[in-house]
Amino acid sequence: MSVLVCVTGRNNDKLMAKLSDAIPDVKIEQWPYCEDLSSVQFVLAWNAPDNLWQQLPNLKVVQSYGAGVDGIALDKLKPCVSVARIVDQKLSVDMAEYVLSHVLANKLRHREYAANQSEGYWKPRRAMGGNEVGILGLGELGKVTAEVLVRHGFSVRGWSRTQKDLPKVACYAGENQLETFLSEIDYLVCLLPLTQQTKGMLNAKLFSLLPANCVVINVARGQHLVEEDLLAALDNNKLGGAVLDVFSTEPLPENHPFWSHSKVTVTPHVAAVTNMDTVIAQIAANVNACLDDTPLENQVNLSKGY
């Protein structure tokens, strides 16, 4: 058996070295430099080319290099192939702190005061009054984010495809409850997994259901957002602002209107950065599970896509 690393768009020297240290008795190769594709039973993947999967006749496990599996063409995999993802508890805390910081920054008018400072303009104002945060997606990241916001005195509601029950969080579920969930929130945080059902979910129709003062915070995937619809909603004062950490094209092109828009805060996909040692430990555990034919850690339900 060999392990194939196909994590594109980045330098993987550190990753390869740490993997070799963690599983020294396993042959590890990096795409596209592989001596024998028929020997590959385990692939560590992110944004792998679609034509890779048909070249791996003995593939057993695909391990996502991220917390989601949208970087893997699940529909190209054989039914016998299992898929796992990374779960990093520190990631959840980092995400919650990022969301909290930007909710507070908007509530306390930090962006407004920064603009005033650049112009030497002195104008004190009270903090924004809205205190209702809505979270789209109540998976591990969403749950921890909700808990942190509740601890800091915010009123929190959450929406998910299936019903969830979280302490001090008003939980909504399914399409029938989405409009009610959106109707009275001051901040909308997107933490949904990216699936065919959620792609493009942050669109003009959804924005029309939000209060005009609402600030949209997208920390999930850039593909959740229809960028033109967001810009139109901001320009027409249908939304109060946006905080964007993820984008359909990354890095964000230098001429993109988000860079200069007065109501948009851009950060370079830093809301939650996975710890390398955590990643290596989980990958090594699943490589050993593949070898021993035992259950994987953090296996994905392929019918749901997460």
Structure description:
The longest helix has 19 residues, at 89-107. The protein has 306 residues and is an alpha/beta fold. The strands form two sheets. The chain has a seven-stranded parallel beta sheet with strand order 8-7-6-9-10-11-12. The chain has helices at residues 13-22, 89-107, 110-118, 140-151, 175-182, 204-208, 227-235, 276-292, and strands spanning 2-7, 27-30, 40-46, 61-64, 82-84, 132-136, 155-160, 169-173, 187-190, 215-218, 241-244, 264-266. It folds into two domains: 2-88 and 275-292, 3-Layer(aba) Sandwich (Rossmann fold), CATH 3.40.50; 89-266, NAD(P)-binding Rossmann-like Domain (Rossmann fold, 3-Layer(aba) Sandwich), CATH 3.40.50.720. The mean pLDDT is 95. Strand 6 (132-136), helix 4 (140-151) and strand 7 form a beta-alpha-beta unit.
Task: Offer a few descriptive terms.
single chain, 306 residues, alpha/beta, Rossmann fold, 2 domains, five-stranded parallel beta sheet, 8 helices, 29% helix, elongated, oxidoreductase activity, acting on the CH-OH group of donors, NAD or NADP as acceptor
Task: Explain briefly what this protein structure is.
It is built from 8 helices and 12 strands. It has 306 residues and is α/β, with parallel strands linked by helices.
